[in-house]
Every structure is written in structure tokens, then in C-alpha cells.
Amino acid sequence: MNRQSLIIDCDPGVDDAVALMLAFGAGEFELLAVTAVGGNVPVEKTARNARMLRQIAGRGDVPVFAGADRPLRREPAGAGEFHGAEGLGDLTPFEPDAPCTEGHAVDAIVERVMARPEGSVAMAVMGPLTNLALALRREPALAARLGPVAVMGGARSEGGNITASAEFNIWADPDAAAEVLASGCDVVLFGLDATHQVRATEGRIATLEGLGTAKADTAASMMRFSQRIEREIVGWDAPPVHDPCPVAWLLRPGLFELASCRIQVETESELTRGHTAVEFREEMGGGLPHRWATSADADGVFALIAEKCA
Ligand code: RIB
Ligand code: CA
Questions:
Q1: N or C end of the chain: smaller count of CB under 10 Å?
Q2: Nearby residues of 6 by Cβ (< 8 Å), 6 or more positions away
Q3: What distance in Å separates the CA atoms of residue 101 and residue 66, rounded to the nearest whole number?
Q4: Residue 192: domain span
Q5: Is residue 126 a contact partner of residue 169, using CB atoms and an 8 Å limit?
Q6: Are the beta carbons of 40 and 247 closer than 8 angstroms?
Q7: Per DSSP, which regions of 153-208 are E strands?
Q8: For residue 158, which ligand has an atom nearest its CA?
Q9: What's the structural domain count of the chain?
Q10: CATH code for the domain in which residue 302 is found
Q11: How far is the CA of 202 from the centre of ligand 2 (A)?
Q12: Is pTM beyond 0.85 here?
């Protein structure tokens, strides 16, 4: 099998945890690194959580690097209310048996991508885009060298989830998102328009709980936590599971419909900071260098999660 080389940049985070269980179980990937960024919880916790999840999945072969502890310009802001104070819902933290690999996540991204053939390394980014933006600042040639950069972030028709007009990953570091989108990277953005279609219903969670594996139990536990929290805070019975979407697309592109577009990010306004302006009309100028996920096959995504967590 010709495996896809992949770097996952994340801020675990309950839905990041589901995405990691999916990726750790997918033999189609050569996982070059998991890089942690400050986001849902501070980077000390997101890096520890990535190490915990790696151990649960039995993937000690995948190096974990700690990355940026704050956005490029903005103050750090978390989302602990949706992920729990430690970031992994009801999962009790433990000290993982393997440390982070020496070195910064930004250097790990640059070194791994630049050492491999053009277009051969993809990224799945599912937290604030700070690490990737810093990597592009360090090595601008990274943009042309990278393969597809599948990002969970943004909102268009769905409105925002952290503010009325912005989704958390883009809102948390709008400058990083703007720099990545302007860099020439082949960005595929999985915003709330698609991820709100991918919901952890009772049946889908029960299917995972019936598998009886550590990966499936962990993914189900994260969804149960989200089910309780989103019922309390938002009134939703079936919480959206955002972060597996970019990973699922890399495995099964047919699970999503994409549209070519040009995406710009508001970086200055306090009212609309992090808003993603998704333009589909070529006549508006600037070309259509990005892709935006307009729909998701939720049954297919959950079947894939169950397949890889079995
Ligand atoms: O808006 C959803 C995104 O913000 C997800 O990546 C979730 O983990 C949080 O980081
Ligand atoms: Ca995340």
C-alpha cells in the first residue's frame, strides 16, 4: 500500500481525540508527527493529551512535539467549557509513558516536509493555525512543498460558534489563519457548514461503545462528554464532531463535497474577528485558490471512525 505521509496539528480537545483515534487506526497513513498547539487548553495540556492518546492507541511510534503556546498576536483564549479543564472530557489525566520528542513543533513540521518529495506530505490541522503559520514564516518554500492542508475551521452559512460570526480555531488566531490562507498552501477548509452535519447521535455513539476496543471506547467517551455538555450549554442532543472531518477526507475524499473558493479572514474587528469570508465567484478577482467543504456524508464518516477504531 502506498501510504499517505501525514502530520497532524491539533489542540486535544475531545473532538481532536476522536480524530487522532481515527488517524492512529488508519494504516493508509504514514504518521510523521503529531504536533500540539495551545488552543482548547494550554499547550502543556494539549501536548500531554496527545501523548496520552498516542499511548491509548498503542502508537508509540508516532512522535509528539509541543508547539506554540500563544497566538501570533492575540491573547491566548481557551474553550475548556466544551472540553473539560484538562481537555479530554471525563478522561482522567495520567502521565504518559513516553515524553514529547525534543524540539519545537514548528521545526518538526519544516524539517519533515522539506526532507520529502514535493506534495508528498499532507497536513491535518484541527486547532488554531499558529504552528503552521510560524513554520511558513520560518520556511516560505513550505507552501509549495506541502501536499493538501486539510483544516478544521471557519464558518459561512452556519454562523459562528465562539462568536456570532466566527468559529473557534480561526477566531483564536485569526492572523495565523490569514497568513496560511495567503501563503499558497493548498488549503481545504472544513468549516461548521460541513462539520455541523457530522453529529454524534445516540446510535452512532452506541455503535462505537459496542466495539470494545481502547480506541473506540476513548472516542465514544469523548462523544458522551460532548453530548452532555452541548445539551447543557447549547441545547443540542447530538453534538457535532468537527475534527475527524479533515482526517476522514484524506482517507475517503468522496465523503465530502467541496467547492473552489477564495477565503479571507477578518483580523482586526473585535466584532467579527476570525470571520471567514468564503467567496465562490471568480469574477470577484483573486482567483479561487482554496476549497471549502459544503457537505458531509455523516453516516460515512462515522462508519469510517468505527472501521478504524475497531
Ligand atoms: O470550532 C471547533 C474547533 O474548535 C475544534 O477543532 C475544536 O477542537 C475546537 O478546537
Ligand atoms: Ca481542535
A1: N
A2: 23, 29, 30, 31, 32, 121, 122, 123, 124, 250
A3: 8
A4: 4-309
A5: yes
A6: no
A7: 187-190
A8: 1
A9: 1
A10: 3.90.245.10
A11: 22
A12: yes
Distance of CA 197 to the CA centre of its chain: 16
Spatial distance between the Cα atoms of 141 and 138, rounded to a whole number of angstroms: 9
Task: Quickly tell me which residue has 471506547 as its cell.
Answer: 217
For cell 500500500, name the residue: 1
Determine whether the shortest distance from the Cβ of 29 to ligand 1 is under 6 A: no
* Residue whose C-alpha cell reads 467517551 in the numeric block: 221
Model confidence at 115: pLDDT above 80: yes
Helix, strand, coil percent content, the chain, rounded in steps of 5: 40, 20, 40
Does the Cβ of 179 fall within 6 Å of ligand 1?
Answer: no
What would the pLDDT profile of 33-43 be if each residue is shown by its tens digit?
999 999 999 99
Beta-carbon contacts of 48 under 8 Å, excluding residues fewer than 6 positions away, are: 93, 95, 96
Is 196 part of the annotated catalytic residue set? no
Q: Which of 286, 229, 230 is nearest to 263 (CA)?
A: 286
Residue with cell 493555525: 129
Distance, in Å, from the CA atom of 156 to the CA atom of 166, rounded to the nearest integer, reads 9
Q: Is 267:171 a contact under the CB 8 Å cutoff?
A: no
Q: How far apart are CA 93 and CA 113, in angstroms?
A: 32
Could you tell me if the CB of 127 is within 6 A of ligand 1?
A: yes
pLDDT category at 79 given cuts 50, 70, 90 is confident
Report the phi/psi class of residue 285: left, alpha or beta, with left for phi > 0 and alpha for psi in -120 to 50: left
DSSP of 262-292, one letter per residue? Answer: EEEE--S-TTTTT-EEEE--GGGSS---EEE
User: Region 24-30: what's the mean pLDDT?
Assistant: 98
Cell of 235: 441545547
Q: In what order do the strands lie in the sheet with 290-296?
A: 64-66, 29-36, 4-10, 121-125, 149-152, 187-190, 290-296, 256-265, 276-279
